[in-house]
Amino acid sequence: MQMINHLFEVTTGQTVVTAILLILCLYPIMGAFFWFFGALSYRFLRRDTVDDDWQVLPKSKQPYVTIMIPAHNEELMIEATIRYLFDQLNYDNFEVLICNDGSTDQTAEIVERLEAEYPNLRMLEIVKNKGKAHAFNIGMFFARGEYILSNDADTIPEPDAIMKYMNYFIHDYDMNTSAVTANMDVQNRTTLLGKSQTVEFSSIVGVIKRSQAAVNDSMYAYSGANTMYRKSFLIDVGGFRQNRATEDISIAWDHQMLGAVPRFAPNIVFHMNVPETIGDLYKQRKRWAQGGTEVWLTNFKKFVLHPWRHRYQMSMFVDSTLSVIWSFFFAITSVMYVGSLICQAVQGNWPEIWHMFAMAWIFVTFELLAGLLQLITALLLDHRGAKLKYLPFAPLYMMFFWMINPITIIVTFIPAVKTILGFGSGTWVSPTRKTMPDQN
């Protein structure tokens, strides 16, 4: 009997290990199909969206909005952005609040000059740079609006953006809406890197957010560059976490753990600059990866100890867990694969080498096909197919950007753990700015 029990335990253990390895191997493919079906569900099954049915609110019924711009050394961008907001937005009841976070350039002087021209422009001077989250938290208590629109200094929302945002807060079923995040469009798409990120941001990110919204109204992250927050929900969670690498990811999780509902608005478009060099792109993705791991570690205990209480956010937690584990699995198996190829080459076992190449080719082909299905769906749904012309840049996205994700998760895992242990810092350094590019 003991022998039978032992064999049963061994068999069960092997089955579990095999199942886990199979899930990890197929995770990228399953993820692509998940986002694909989720995006279709959002498009054809949800009935509570206002994507194509929004109303213009008269001035007497427009809620007061504070457009908040945390700025650190933004002298090249700040004036053009401020002028656009005041001159081009189709909304009357708003103010612009600049949180000057220890800038050492001409940012303050430019804003002071513009204050004489625009009565609803104000500036808060923060002497020491302590990061975007800190600047936002300070500005939150000086904001006069009951709604706060976060707007980066290099971000341009469409003229109807605020009016559309308000349509997500005015219905009875919107009472628990904590924030609405818009659909990003790449502004500087004159370079190969910019065009490939157009595929990613304008389409892939839009599909993922649609899918997350379709599954229990969850969302992994807001768009930090342009999101409308209900001020009361910011206060309820104690504002933004100042020692996190990504304040937009952490606040999204904090809202949902509170029971609030995030919303994605694909019909609201904002334009922003993206990294134009490999180095800047890698730094950005490292920050995103660290921020994602930080929120996963922060909420790990809550999900494990109280899974039923957080059942509506469980899909977020499961996917984040698989993403972290798969990144290490991908790195380890890649090293093992290359090592095995070298060993077989040394031994002259060419049939085995060709077999290994064939198996890898089959797996990569399935992964690329699943990714292409997701990508085409994204391009068709987003902007009504206007971005299909960027389809030729899809291979660069799928082969290059997919590889950055697991690498950055691994590289930033230890810094993320340090942050959770109390050694994190939110101090920021603005990217190198250039003049506003033309779209083409």
At a glance:
The protein has 13 helices and eight strands. The protein has 440 residues and is an alpha/beta fold.
Would you kindly provide a written description of the structure presented here, covering whatever features stand out?
The protein has 13 helices and 8 strands. Helix content is 55%, strand content 13%. The chain is globular and about 80 Å long. It has an 8-stranded mixed sheet with strand order 3-2-1-4-7-6-8-5, sandwiched between helices. By secondary structure, the chain is an alpha/beta fold. The termini are far apart. The protein has a domain at 40-55 and 167-426.
Shape: globular
If you average the pLDDT, what whole number results? 85
Structural class: alpha/beta
Report the helical percentage. Answer: 55-70%
Can you count the helices?
A: 13
Radius of gyration in whole Å, from Cα? 24 Å
Task: Please mark out the parts with pLDDT under 50 across 5 or more consecutive residues, or reply none.
Answer: 436-440
**C-alpha end-to-end distance:** 74 Å
Label this structure with key terms.
alpha/beta, 440 residues, single chain, eight-stranded mixed sheet, 8 strands
